[in-house]
Design brief:
By secondary structure, the protein is an alpha/beta fold. The protein has one domain: Alpha/beta knot (3-Layer(aba) Sandwich), CATH 3.40.1280.10. Helices cover 32% and strands 17% of the residues. A six-stranded parallel β-sheet has the order 3-2-1-5-4-6. The two termini are 16 Å apart.
Length: 150
């Protein structure tokens, strides 16, 4: 299973998602441009010593990222849909895609997704933190597919 971040803007979020990937065995894809310098110390500080236990691939564009999907399904997590992330049946080769913190993803990326799902939350709030969303999504997807570490 993979987690893909579309043009992430906050180094600390990327570091936290990298740590999540290390702990649960998910590869991380970063779709550029990033909103910070890759060597930002906040990435390493948040990922801590887990950074050496995760596979991270950077892609120069969404098109370049798409070339790596093969038969994998792209599951977009967005606030702009009504389908619950808990009502989808995940596959072990799914790629869980999250948009940039300030704006999500453009329509062309929405159109490329095979599934569009939303994490349920109270209506008076706008969205969850990116790393929190990735953790909830990956946990459920791995639970369904039997991929949670022992």
């Amino acid at each position: 299973m993979r987690i893909a971040l579309f043009e992430p803007e906050i180094a600390g979020n990327v570091g936290a998602v990298m740590r999540l990937g290390a702990c649960l065995g998910a590869q991380i894809d970063l779709i550029e441009p990033l909103g910070f310098a890759w060597d930002d110390r906040r990435v390493r500080r948040t990922a801590m010593d887990y950074i050496d236990h995760v596979s991270v691939t950077r892609h120069v564009s969404f098109a370049a990222f798409q070339e790596t999907l093969g038969q994998s399904r792209l599951v977009l997590f967005t606030t702009k849909t009504t389908q619950s992330a808990y009502d989808v049946t995940y596959r072990a080769d799914d790629v869980l895609l999250f948009g940039k913190e300030s704006a999500g993803v453009p329509l062309e990326v929405v159109g490329a997704a095979h599934e569009r799902v939303r994490l349920p939350m109270r209506p008076e709030v706008r969205s969850l933190n990116l790393a929190t969303s990735a953790a909830l999504a990956l946990g459920e997807a791995l639970r369904q597919t039997g991929g949670l570490p022992g």
